[in-house]
Design a protein that fits this description.
Largest sheet: 3 strands, antiparallel
Radius of gyration: 13 Å
Strand order of the largest sheet: 2-3-4
Number of helices: 1
Order of helices and strands: EEEEHE
Number of strands: 5
Structural class: mainly beta
Helix content: under 10%
Length: about 80
Amino acid sequence: MLVLSRKVGQSVVIPDYDITVTVVESQGGRVRLAIEAPREIAVYRDEILPRKMLGGEVATAPVFVGALASDATCDSEATIAIAK
């Protein structure tokens, strides 16, 4: 697992998959992320993915392109964890 600290406006790029994750806002222990990815790559919040993998009902559709606002806990900087 790679753990990086980023400030608002800073990004993490995963070039092999053409994915960019940018910290949009960090306020009150919450972080808003913008995720840019190719259309064919589905993006799920982590609490949704296990239900999807088990064939359960998923109330929220995947986000396929553009920005995704996601919440996470942080201090003054955002921390982004990418697991491989």
